[in-house]
Amino acid sequence: MIKILVADDHAIVREGLKQIVAEETDMRVAGEASNANELFGLIEQEGWDIVVLDINMPGKSGLEALKEMKTLYPKIPVLILSMFGEDQYGLRAIKAGASGYLKKVSVPTELVSAIRKIVNGGKYINLSLAEKLADIVDKPNREFPHDSLSDREYQIMCFIASGKSAEEIADDLALSINTVYTYRNRILEKMHLKSNVELTQYAIQNKLIEI
Predict the structure, then answer these.
(1) Last residue of a domain, one of 106, 138, 170
(2) Were 58 and a residue from 25, 102, 174, 187 both cysteine, which residue would form a disulfide, CB within 3.0 to 4.6 Å?
(3) Which of 85, 118, 138 finishes a domain?
């Protein structure tokens, strides 16, 4: 029996995953976490075959939690489940050690297939993400301005480019508004941009947000 630990801050998403998995005879969701602290608390208590991890959680983000997991528990595979497309977070997730990346809108059978493949030692990467990984191999020294951003800065950049206000971002990430503005200024400085408008144009041109 495949023991799955699901980490997502939305109860409705966790419940949906449980319902999908409940139809399978060889796997079950044996633990749920709504944030990184709960995630690591559960990891320490039991052995898990796989962690299904949301990328956008309050406090410590999914990518930050993933990197910490790969340091502390490198043998536990992680499937990233995200509302964001592969262009936005797929490459970062795979580079950080994820064994697979799947959008939340994917069909249930794809989720089940991804879990089985990863637990059996494989990677679950769709064609779009595979092409991007191949491009990195072909052009290893190719860099973009957004490559210089930390995971948190990248996350906030995507939110800003998607049209979210500083108040909304602060609420989503459990940060103060001042902290969000500090991140915004740092992002603009690193990317040599002058405004949210330029940031949004850049994100659209480089397919970092879906429109």
Answers:
(1) 138
(2) 174
(3) 138
- What distance in Å separates the CA atoms of residue 36 and residue 143, rounded to the nearest whole number? 30
149 and 133 together in one domain: no
Which residue segment(s) compose the domain that 179 sits in? 145-205
- In tens, the pLDDT along 85-143 reads 776 788 888 889 999 998 888 878 899 999 999 999 999 987 767 766 666 555 555 67
Helices (H), 139-207: 151-161, 166-173, 177-191, 196-205
Q: Tell me how far apart the alpha carbons of residues 7 and 31 are, in angstroms, rounded to a whole number.
A: 9
Task: Say how far apart CA 199 and CA 110 lie, in whole Å.
Answer: 34
Whole-structure pTM over 0.90, yes or no? no
Q: Which residues are within 8 A (CB) of 162 and not within 5 positions of it... i.e. 6 or more apart?
A: 209
Distance CA 197, CA 86 (A): 23
